[in-house]
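Render tRNA-dihydrouridine(20/20a) synthase in 3D.
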Amino acid sequence: MTPYPSARFSVAPMLDWTDRHCRYFHRLMSRHTQLYTEMVTTGAILHGKGDYLGFNQQEQPLVLQLGGSDPVALAECALRAERQGYNEINLNVGCPSDRVQNGMFGACLMAEPQRVAASVAAMKAAVAIPVTVKTRIGIDEQDSYQFLCTLVDSLVEVGVDALIVHARKAWLKGLSPKQNRDVPPLDYERVYQLKRDYPDLVIAINGGIKSLADAKLHLSHLDGVMLGREIYQNPYLLAQVDAELFGDNYEVPSRHEVIRRLLPYIESQLSQGTYLGNITRHTLGIFQGLPGARGWRRHLSENAHKVGAGPEVVAAAMAKVPEFCYID
């Protein structure tokens, strides 16, 4: 069993998607789901001018996903994140983009298991919070089960707290990051086998999971499940997670109520200069499948970018969806 129950279900770190506004919105629908930041590089944290570690405390439990390959830099960033209040650090060993490869981190690190292990060891020596790794099952022609086990062995040796496995290999050349999320075939059985061979290691699975029924199936084999695009496109799926996967049967807010609870956050963010569309773009799928959902999306898409757009735009968009006793 996982030593930290939130690992049971999580929303994947997604570049340009799971920013702080997205995470705040998601937290309105689930108390227990583990949320992740977008991948943040060590260079951005140590040398950038922005606040790359900032978040709202209501987003917790929250994981910082780091991109990097220098153990010293990773340890320093992990320490800063722990002081900031993050409850876990995750090292990205799965992103296949050219930009990431040029920085010597992401999926290409699967070919350097000792470097990955040294990075995890350095972070664990620096912080008391869990340090985990997200990886693929292989890269390019290096996609044997033994190749994956070599990485896992090195991580187990340094005491990694958990492993999240995207059940596809990554092609480092020839496929775009988007294609790498769809083209390489899924191999769930390989991840199941990993759990059988490493029963004491907390292992979660990611990739192609579309429903909570699918999640429950995976949880009969593994410790955790991570969903990405399905949650982003159909965010109200999160409203079922706490009851279905954590046994917490508190009263779940309706879709309309979720948006109403988001309005004070929107007002606060607008007062700080945030552009309305940067928040509402994450909410477009909230009414998916309901009458009026297209009107909701269209009104936001046509008006949230306008100068001076505020909560009234959201209210007008929400009025496009009849509020009746629909069953979720």
